[in-house]
Amino acid sequence: MTVIHDFRTLWAFPNFRKLLAVRLLSQFADGMFQVGLATYVVFSPEQQTTPADIAAAMAVLLLPYSLLGPFAGVMLDRWRRRQVLLYGNLLRAALVVLTVTLVLASVPNYLFYLAALSVTAVNRFILAGLSAALPRVVDAQRLVVANSLSPTAGTVAATVGGACAFGAQALIDTPGRWADALALGLAAAVYLLAASAALLMQRDLLGPATTERVSNLHAALTATATGLRHGLTHLWSRRPAALALLGVGVMRFCYGALLVLVLMLARYAWGDTDSDGVAWLGLAVGFSGAGFFVAAVSTPWMVARCGRFGWFALCAALAAVLVPALGLTFRPVPILIAAFLLGLVSQGAKIVTDTVVQSSVEDDYRGRVFSLYDMLFNMAFVGAAGLAALMLPPDGRSAALVITVALLYLSTAVGVWRLHRRLDPLHSSTVPTVHGTEPGAGGDTQGGGQEAGGEAAPSDGTGPAVCAETGTAAGTDSERHTGADTDTAPGGIAGTPPEPGPSTGSAGSAASDRHPEPERPTP
Asked: According to the UniProt entry, which residue ranges have a biased composition of type Gly residues (predicted)?
């Protein structure tokens, strides 16, 4: 298979293996941390969880990605990236230990959220650093493949980490807060392992070189903000891309509102014990992940037959019809079917949007546009959680919310269908190619499939490198780190394809041209 062959090729680079080890350990720990956070906020017996609590937890997980993401690259151009991976993981381990102490001490929730927010803020720099370091450990010809497979492997690691945390909690017969503390404590231990793995690399291996480091921080931050404004202006001039982003933002909003509904149903309506609710939530995560996988496999085929906007419109229309048909029952089995459907249509629309943006936006602006994409994606999710907090009763049964979401899906389907009729000669462009999938429960995450859409860089490495984690193509130096590395937690509170799709700026081939040639692969 092509994926296996590509991975074997990358495995021949020793420093790639070391960087991948740091990624896998870091994201494995992320999955454990997010499960500990989710079970404490939603299922802890000591907590009378409300939709507002869930909205606050989603804001903790996603807002750092949205607000810090575009500026993380500026800092990564000042600090040695290997040191960022080392000290960032050490700092996260310490912050998680603090979070465990707060959980066991039954402190006010705002202190817990502040500690958790600090962990996710540091995570933003870790994930951006991992993407920015790739051109230092593989050659230009294999950078596109590395950008596709490395984030996918990280997403799988986060999913496995979350599953291990669920399993560890199920194996011990202790009060709820001790089980939550166990998941968080295990995450801290794995963060220490990730920091140890970073020590296997030389201090200056991952760059930036001394001559490349940003010297004037204020000027760099100002330039980043100005670049985002120029990116927004350019995006508006590319109307198909702008409207596609608007459509996928609305679908992301719907996805987030329904996720909060499912969390409340699992907590209060499905089962007599908290463990029953956790089990149902785990099944919802699995069904949604299956939908993401089916979208990754079926979207190229559907785009070839319906056109890009035609498939997008069909996804929104399916959701508009089937979400109320299944969701208004508020029963587990129909909701699980709806979770599969939402995974399918949300990821199908996202793949189309990535492809439209990549093919419509000029290369010089692509990194900045994908940073805006990431901010829209995560902020729509948090906004949806806020709406759900206002509309949902304590048990999660709200017909008004389900109907509102269905109407939003319907309006999106109508608007995108008009685009299809006007613009879908575009569907003759290259069909998106998908290397992997990113499962999610209902949404970052930050946070997730991984696709390299339509007009991605050619495999010979001469074009712009596209990061499958974000769909971000390599841009200029000032923009190559501006995205957000989306590995928002599968199975966590956000349960999102840490994604938003695009979630971190990738280090592009343009950057690699300035770097020393990476070591050649060993036999």
From this structure: 439-452
Residue 121: count other Cβ atoms within 10 Å of its Cβ. Answer: 18
Report the half-sphere exposure of 123 (CA within 13 A, side-chain side).
41
Strand partners, 473: 466
pTM: 0.62
Looking at residue 42, its pLDDT comes to 75
The answer to whether the beta carbons of residues 288 and 339 sit under 8 Å apart is: yes
Residue 98, pLDDT score: 92
Residues of the chain with pLDDT under 50: 426-516, 523
Supply 57's token pair: 């937890």
- Tell me the CA distances in angstroms from 94 to 81, 89, 184, 188, one per residue in order: 20, 9, 11, 7
Beta bridge partners of 415: none
Q: Is 269 helix (H, G, I), strand (E, B) or coil?
A: coil
- pLDDT on residue 212: 52
Structure tokens at 241: 């891309």
Surface-to-core class of residue 272, CB atoms within 10 Å of its CB (0-12 exposed, 13-18 middle, 19+ buried) = exposed
Report which of 503, 187, 437 is spatially closest to residue 291, judged by C-alpha positions.
437
Predicted local confidence at residue 87, as pLDDT:
94
State the Cα angle at 51 between 48 and 57, rounded to 5°.
90
Domains in the chain, start-ordered, CATH in brackets? 2-221+249-268+278-507 (1.20.1250.20)
Q: Side chain identity at 308, as an amino acid letter?
A: R
**DSSP summary character for residue 506:** P
pLDDT of residue 521: 53
